[in-house]
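[step 3/7] inverse_fold.run input=structure_tokens len=285
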């Protein structure tokens, strides 16, 4: 039995992953922002798969306290883990700062997963091979990790903030893969494809229309296709030896953006993230 933590299972790609995993012999731990919806989903999944082993843990990735509590609960209740999928993500129309003072998309999509991963790493470091999967995006190719601009929302652009957070995802995965090189832990990132989910801001008529039109034209694919690559990295034997790879939606390794490959930039981001989240200890350090 494989014990898997997935963040953001209440919608889209994460929910599709949860549906697939519930139907197989895995122990699924759903780390969700909205626990009520998490329990409703658990109920739906266990009704369809009575033997499924599913737990729900609250986790708001935008809140340092919530991430810490979530990690504490998982470590206390479950001990060891085999897979962590950092799937949850957001795209925000309105500029906002998180309680940490960082731009909210960056805080949710990068700082929260950084903190959760570092907290759960001891549970993933054991005799068997463990895997950490980071759901990033091709938008990271267009992004710039403008370090001087992470704590203000002047001249905010939704796509710029989102792409930057996805660049941070790939940088983090690469930096962690390097740190885990001599361990049992494999760390990889991916682009899931253009998938029709709730990630486009639904309150905006423009984005709603773009999303619906793209889905109708087949430009945006259904959620189960978006789940294919994270599931491949999480469980497939063919992915067992991948370390520090960035996969496209066809499960093919691709060269990531130059900034994502830069060790210097990765380390700068790591230091900043460790300070922002209080995750000062190095893995295995
Ligand atoms: N869809 C695409 O075309 C596409 C393309 C490239 C990459 N991605 C990536 O794929 C991942 C999944 O996105 P999706 O498309 O499936 O979007 P989605 O349908 O909007 O699902 C996002 C999930 O993340 C959760 N989430 C949002 N903010 C959170 C927070 N502060 N704390 C904890 N969970 C939070 C949401 O929870 P709630 O239900 O509570 O809102 C939801 O379960 C994201 O990392 C996204 O960047 C998507």
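[step 3/7] decode complete -> sequence:
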């Amino acid at each position: 039995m494989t014990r898997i933590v997935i963040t953001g299972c209440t919608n889209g790609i994460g929910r599709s992953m949860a549906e697939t995993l519930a139907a197989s012999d895995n122990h699924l731990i759903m780390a969700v922002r909205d626990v009520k919806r998490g329990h409703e989903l658990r109920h739906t999944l266990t009704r369809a798969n009575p033997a499924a082993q599913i737990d729900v843990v609250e986790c708001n990735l935008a809140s340092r306290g919530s991430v810490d509590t979530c990690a504490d609960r998982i470590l206390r209740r479950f001990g060891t883990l085999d897979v962590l999928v950092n799937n949850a993500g957001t795209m925000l129309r309105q500029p906002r700062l998180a309680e940490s003072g960082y731009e909210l998309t960056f805080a949710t999509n990068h700082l929260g997963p950084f903190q959760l991963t570092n907290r759960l790493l001891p549970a993933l470091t054991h005799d068997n091979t463990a895997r950490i999967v980071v759901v990033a995006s091709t938008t990271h190719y267009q992004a710039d990790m403008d370090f001087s601009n992470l704590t203000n929302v002047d001249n905010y652009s939704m796509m710029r903030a989102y792409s930057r957070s996805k660049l941070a995802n790939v940088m983090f995965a690469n930096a962690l893969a390097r740190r885990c090189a001599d361990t049992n832990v494999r760390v990889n990132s991916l682009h899931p494809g253009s998938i029709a989910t709730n990630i486009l801001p639904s309150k905006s008529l423009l984005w709603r229309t773009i999303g619906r039109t793209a889905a109708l034209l087949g430009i945006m694919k259904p959620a189960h296709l978006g789940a294919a690559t994270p599931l491949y990295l999480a469980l497939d034997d063919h992915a067992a030896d991948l370390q520090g790879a960035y996969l496209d939606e066809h499960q093919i390794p691709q060269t990531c953006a130059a900034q994502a490959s830069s060790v210097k930039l990765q380390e700068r981001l790591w230091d900043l993230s460790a300070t922002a989240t209080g995750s000062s200890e190095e893995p295995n350090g």
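[step 4/7] annotate
The beta strands are 2-7, 26-32, 53-58, 83-86, 130-135, 185-190, 246-247, 253-254.
The pocket of NAP is lined by residues 7-8, 10-14, 33-34, 59-62, 87-90, 108, 135, 137, 191-192, 194-195, 197-199, 226 (CB under 6 Å).
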